[in-house]
Design a protein that fits this description.
Mean pLDDT: 86
Largest sheet: 5 strands, antiparallel
Oligomer: single chain
Structural class: alpha+beta
Shape: elongated
Radius of gyration: 24 Å
Order of helices and strands: HEEEHEE
Number of helices: 2
Length: 129
């Protein structure tokens, strides 16, 4: 009688909940991969453009990761973003490497090269537009 007793919330409910969470996590993972591939493909299909622009703002986002096993591991990753305003008044925020980010200052004017959402470069100019 002891082994077959069901107390209402047994391993069946736990297994079902575990399966739902597992499928949800895998689904989110697959969705992000498909979205990344779609963005990469969209950028590749977009024309390479060079337009006059001004740097209007800069920001970075630092994400922290903590892994606990036999030893605690801490890691961080910084993503750098610059917002450019083009002659029409439209603004676009592009991510770039830390080295490129460090070379730009708010107020810089020049030629912005990009392909879709992919930053290709910025060449400073002295002219006003």
């Amino acid at each position: 009688m002891g082994y077959g007793m069901n107390y209402g919330f047994g391993f069946g409910a736990f297994e079902a909940m575990f399966t739902i969470v597992f499928v949800l996590v895998i689904g989110i993972f697959i969705f992000n991969i498909v979205r990344g591939i779609g963005q990469w493909n969209s950028n590749n299909q977009s024309p390479r453009l060079t337009v006059n622009a001004v740097v209007v703002s800069k920001r970075n986002h630092v994400s922290y990761h903590h892994h606990a096993d036999d030893h605690a591991h801490h890691a961080s990753h910084t993503t750098y973003y610059v917002t450019f305003q083009v002659e029409s008044g439209d603004r676009m925020e592009l991510s770039m490497s830390g080295q490129e980010f460090g070379m730009l200052a708010e107020g810089d004017r020049g030629s912005l090269s990009f392909q879709g959402t992919r930053y290709l470069g910025f060449q400073r100019t002295e002219s006003k537009f």
